[in-house]
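Hey everyone, long-time lurker, first post.

I ran two proteins through the pipeline my lab uses and got sequence/structure pairs for each. Pasting them in order. The first:
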Amino acid sequence: MTQSIVVQVGQCGNQVGCRFWDLALREHAHVNQAVLVDMEEGVLGEILQGPLRSLFNSTQLISDVSGSGNNWAVGHHTYGLTYREQIVDQVRKAAEHCDCLQCFFLIHSMGGGTGSGLGTFVLKLLEEEFPEVCRIVTSVYPTAEDDVITSPYNSVLAMKELTEHADCVLPVDNQSLVDIVGKIQHMSNTGKPSCTIKKDCTIISGQGGVVKVEKPFDAMNNIVANLLLNITSSARFEGSLNMDLNEIAMNLVPFPRLHYLVPSLTPLYTLADVNVPPRRLDQMFSDAFSKDHQLIRADPKHNLYLACALMLRGDVQMSDLRRNIERLKPTLPFVPWNQEGWKTSLCSVPPVCHSHSLLALANNTCVKSTFFELRERFVKLYRRKAHLHHYLAVDGMELAGFNEALSSISDLIEDYTHLEHPLMPNAPRLTIAT
């Protein structure tokens, strides 16, 4: 069996990571290989006092007391240099316990200082120390109404590092998580016999985890944790068509920089009435390509697919998989040079409380709309030089870093645009003059 190491950075990264460990333990006794990093003590302190305290020892936790002040430069430059050796040491110790280390999972948020700054510093460390090991990053993007005024700076500065040093990035949009949780809670309160939703289903339940009392972000964190639960299922269980994690990057990323994969998850709820039949398998496939099930606000069907992975759990046959791919293919716009760009995985063990589940990972040009909105918010601050002095006061941070980050995200948007609208598509062939 292959192994992965989970590196959780910042408040959001650690809360999501601990939701993942909680759910993984419900499925089976899981040997954890994790490094938990946060520059505030709050969340890590709760972990050591909560239901998961026996899962981690104190040496796996790296913390400070003052936090990064929502400043990417403090997290990346100040704390990165201070804790570099300690982080490398803990990751190496975790790696030594793996017989076949296949992948690092980095979990962090983009809007704060520690998650974005120190998180991307750790990503570079992983590339330097373990260049042959795949690096898959789950990044939680802020909403436009984020209460961190500097989140556009932090996010765009982090984007440059993700584009250069990650093998795959699974972007998750906070607004999409809010919308999904709202829909599920509304359905659970409607009381319709045909779709009674179980309130403590594993998708949004706040039970277990870091603390016993449910907190506002627990339901959102649980959705991201279920994403990780599905993507790691092939490494944790037997299946008729298991997928190695490094195959994700190998098969879904035709261009190294365009490694942002849009995740969608189904089902998003558990039916409370066991006598009501679950959604038909074919409907589950349709849901996976619906914008209502995407974890970022985008609609891939109106953009261009470069490749797509379908990772199923439960009693599903290859014939079901092939039939649904053939059914959906005519409705999905793929690039002409990769019409067969599908990767599939079948894990025979379903998630707790479900008969089936499906995670779709789409390399699709729709992500550029998220990046475009982020760049607009960055530019709005940067034009006024708002709050720049807080960043430039940090040793190692220069104005050029902002310009390079802006150039990087602009180039990324341009790359996706060129795929959608190739230059001179009907250009005549060169002919030799006679």
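...and the second, right after it:
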Amino acid sequence: MTTALYLPEENIDMIAATSVLQQQAADIRTRTINWASYMQSQMISDEDYKAISALDKSRASYLAQNSSQVVKTLLNLVSHLSKDSTIQYILVLLDDLLQEDRSRVDLFHETAGKLKQCIWGPFLNLLNRQDGFIVNMSSRILAKFACWGHETMPKSDLNFYLQFLKDQLASNNNEYIQSVARCLQMMLRVDEYRFAFVGVDGISTLIRILSTRVNFQVQYQLIFCLWVLTFNPLLAAKMNKFSVIPILADILSDCAKEKVTRIILAVFRNLIEKPEDSSVAKDHCIAMVQCKVLKQLSIFEQRRFDDEDITADVEYLSEKLQNSVQDLSSFDEYATEVRSGRLEWSPVHKSAKFWRENAQRLNEKNYELLRILVHLLETSKDAIILSVACFDIGEYVRHYPRGKHVLEQLGGKQIVMQHLGHEDPNVRYEALLAVQKLMVHNWEYLGKQLEKENENQKQGAAPISGKA
């Protein structure tokens, strides 16, 4: 049995009337299909001919009295006919039947079971067709079968379907993207399907698309998908590992549409309310502060919103974030910045006291923060991020006695050295400083040696020899 997240239907933003799929469906409904010619050429049976003809004339009454035959006929026609225009017509008819009455989904499941027919296969096969309308209307019907009935989609079919939706979202200039997103909005309301979507790396895809310039409608729909994911406490706790907070914070500061603002604030609220571990909620609060969300909330507090949910969420988030700022240690602030991947020259980096007290804390959780710094050096193209990462690694090695050994084990030394030839002079400079710190075995000892040497030179004594 599917366990759907029951939310007010209007919150889903149906957008059906304006989508490309619905505009085309309206045209297809006006067609007349010559079913007699299909029967005469023996492409459909006499039984199916009578059923589809009767369904065309008086849908509701015929379906009420012949429900099993209707299901059988529609599955037969979808499975065995191939002409695009006819398949389009059947799909629109079938989708209309489901849209009129959701309970018909269970009718299809039950009847297909009695007939020993697979309800998923014919529509999954249609996802491979060339015609965009057929592909996306089949997808829409699959989502309804998967979400509106008592039967869940089998695991192998589910993974195939979610991968299909993910690929369709990521494809360039997809005119049906709103319909694809709508299917995903439906699927992710069912808790069993959420983990499967994460399993096909779905969150990363949503974030990658949201980080590009998409229209506000698609923006809203994809953030809605993130929102329904955050109703699961385990997923809410993992969410910011995908940089959800920085991306949504950027959109929040730029968006002009109230419904986009509303859905982002709702995601942020869930990221604080839903995780069962209070330390995770605290980390999310700090990440929001780091991404300037508190500043944005103060701007919202000066505005009037028609939507009461926005006002309530602004008040809730402002209180939680302000409380987290009061409890914030310099290390919390530093750790959140590193985890966000958005390094900048904030005061904590240049504080000698901070590094004396906290360098060895980079070893916590199996060197989590140190590994992130190394990863940023490997992957980032931003000169400031690279400069700060080099500096931090140098300070870690300088203040933690076994730092050089640890960094070599993580492959960090080699990566720092690669930046000695970086095109940006600031990156080269910070990489050089870090390498110098890596080459010195005992930074404090070297400092004392240099002081003694300077003192001896002033007194005319011979310089101290020996290794640093």
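Reply from user beta_strand_b:
Welcome! Quick read of the second one: The mean pLDDT is 88. The CA atoms of residues 130 and 206 lie 25 Å apart.
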